[in-house]
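User: Divalent anion:Na+ symporter, DASS family, Neptunomonas antarctica:
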Amino acid sequence: MKGTDIRVIPGLFSIAIIFLFWFVISPPQGVSANAWHLLALFIGTVVAIIGKAMPIGAIAILAITLVALTGVTNDSPSGAIKDALSGFSNSLIWLIGIAIIISRGLAKTGLGNRIGYYFISLFGRKTIGIGYALALSELVIAPVTPSNTARGGGIIHPIMKSIATSFGSSPEEGTSRKIGHYLALVSYHINPITSAMFITATAPNPLIVKLIADATGSNISITWGTWALAALLPGLLCIALVPLIVYAVYPPEIKSTPDASTFAKSKLIEMGLMSYGEKVMISVFALLLILWAGVPAMIFGADYAVNTTAVAFLGLSVLLISRVLSWEDVLKEKAAWDTVVWFSALVMMATFLNKLGLVAWFSTVVESNIHQLGFDWIVSAIILVVVYFYAHYFFASTTAHITAMFAAFYVAGLALGAPPLYLGLLLAGASSLMMSLTHYATGTSPIVFGSGYVSMENWWVMGFIMSIVNLTVWGVVGGLWWKVLGYW
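Assistant: Predicted structure for Divalent anion:Na+ symporter, DASS family:
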């Protein structure tokens, strides 16, 4: 609808789905009416998100309202509204929201750009070296940048474009293949990998932690350190492979770039000495990593363990006290508050779908169909992960995809005999790595694709190639690494 944020056709389709499940399709045997009605609201919400019927935060408010008014989780009106708002009490949601606010300091102080230009000054004498410099820049800022879009599209992509332009490579002049085509593909394909390496590297990761904990009765509660250590080896190997594979498939015309190092050094000189704000940001960055990794508890014992979300609040408090960020900066960080709202709604709905038995029912259906094929748990897990991964061709949101499919596929894998932590880590990795597939797979992709350096055909070909490489590395190398760590 012109002049508003509402898209009528996707909105009507979403409403039609809800009415269809609520009034026309009867609940299958073993599923309660309340569980089925909540599923109707859930599917309608996911369809609205995929179709972008409204901004995701607005859709979340509608979902919360419908859960509260319909009483699908609780017959008591006061109990229903408490259930509908229960997602806001989840500490993982606030971890991501606060971390997004903290990451604002990277852009405000210029530290993100300084890191990028510093690595290019070191490795930028060859085109492939620039690729690795961009990759290292992504990796360094990923732990404190929970928005992969802000990281890849807001920090790394402008640096990549400035480097390409300095070599006369631009879509407008038909010179993309000089260097811009290569750098755009490398910088983009690093983004899903860094997103898979840390709980705090992309917004949906804490949701995965919650879904795994719910499915295992909290027997498996993945910490920040556990996730980071598990993803370290497969993540670094994938990062090492990306510039080489892109170079082999789509080699740049310009292969030697001595001017890139000079260009980056000139940018660093232009930025001057490290500012007060940058120094504080680095200190906070180091503090967060040390506490998130559980270093005090390792050295002094369990009494010194600190909650991950409390650490994020500590980091933000330091930035406020030091005046690196102002309260106005906090209020203006719309992405953070938007994330807290939509994340709370999706976590709430996913939680009650599990409590009402719907996830268990659906996972049994998936499990029984795969079980009939007669494979062992290894082949069965591969089938599950591959289906889950490539279903992302039909999604424009990793959050919607994870919310719709993760829990059921994880529980089905457990029923097929897969080791819980192995399967959880593999599906968690796949949940970010699937961003590589299309030019609409996540928020970063339309930004990089929209710059015009890469054709849709080249994008999809490279995405499919990297999907095979990344999944293989995560499943095989990651699996062996997790075995060494004693995770399964």
